[in-house]
Design brief:
Elements lengths: L13 H20 L3 H4 L10 H20 L21 H14 L3 H18 L5 E2 L6 E2 H22 L9 H18 L5 E5 L3 E5 L13 E4 L1 H8 L5 H6 L3 E4 L14
Helix pairs in contact: 1-3, 1-5, 1-6, 1-7, 3-4, 3-5, 3-6, 6-7, 7-8
């Protein structure tokens, strides 16, 4: 796979990203607070996790920021933002074990969320965006790492909404936009080229896949879908053929089949 550094990374407004992470976490906390025991016991449709374990896992996505700020600062960033989606699969086993332990040790989920939010808010207020974090996926700047937190929070918000009928946790618009854009740009890193246009309105359009470059008029190869469907495809929640069959994706042109490129994250 070509290194992400060969593709110019999209820029993100650090102030808006910080606010988006806090807003999305707050929305999840409010929803989890209202879940009944029988709802927390439902399957999360993520391996053998329950909704309780999934809810506990969401706090890990934010707590890792605070924990990494507390660690000694590495000399330099090693992982580019566009490399991050491809660096997460190796830690899946450790994350699953840690999630089960966290859920078992914290029966009061709202207290866990409160502690996590307080620590995150305080640490964030003290750390500049260029602070380098010793993240386990690779050292990254705080500004870049916070963009990855929008992916974690939006993806797991969707997981919770799908697992609990009627939950309907809202998506912060900035968080949803950043998540969509980062995963769209990751596709262009994985399949560099300009023969296919992938449209995810209203947040992203990327060119990808090797082949003849399109220069004017309607592109010959076009894929279009909505943000949540795209996020589910990119993270393996939905399969390409199923999305096509359900008319969640439109794909036209001989190079518009993205099935062999997805998911992007394991």
């Amino acid at each position: 796979m070509p290194p992400a550094q060969k593709r110019r990374a999209r820029t993100y407004d650090s102030v808006k990203i910080r606010a988006a992470v806090l807003a999305q976490f707050g929305s999840v906390r409010e929803a989890v607070r209202g879940l009944r025991d029988e709802e927390l016991a439902l399957p999360a449709n993520l391996g053998d996790w329950t909704v309780r374990e999934l809810a506990a896992h969401v706090t890990m996505a934010v707590e890792t920021v605070s924990r990494n700020i507390d660690r000694p600062e590495p000399g330099k960033a090693e992982l580019a933002l566009l490399d991050w989606p491809f660096a997460t699969a190796a830690r899946a086993g450790d994350i699953a074990d840690g999630t089960r332990e966290l859920a078992a040790a914290n029966p009061d989920l709202d207290a866990l969320y409160a502690r996590t939010e307080e620590r995150f808010t305080h640490r964030l207020a003290e750390a500049p965006g260029d602070r380098v974090l010793a993240a386990r996926t690779g050292a990254m700047t705080l500004a870049d790492y916070l963009v990855t937190r929008t992916v974690e929070l939006v993806v797991h918000t969707d997981d919770l909404n799908r697992a609990v009928p009627g939950l309907d946790i809202p998506y912060d618009r900035q968080a949803l936009a950043a998540c969509t854009r980062l995963l769209a740009d990751a596709l262009a890193v994985k399949a560099p080229g300009a023969s296919t246009e992938v449209r995810i309105p209203p947040y992203a359009v990327v060119q990808c896949v090797e082949g003849p470059r399109h220069t004017r008029g309607t592109p010959p190869n076009v894929v279009e879908t909505d943000p949540l469907t795209w996020i589910r495809l990119a993270t393996g929640r939905t399969e390409w053929q199923a999305a096509l069959a359900d008319a969640k994706v439109s794909a036209s042109g001989e190079r518009a089949d993205l099935g062999g490129l997805l998911p992007l994250m394991g």
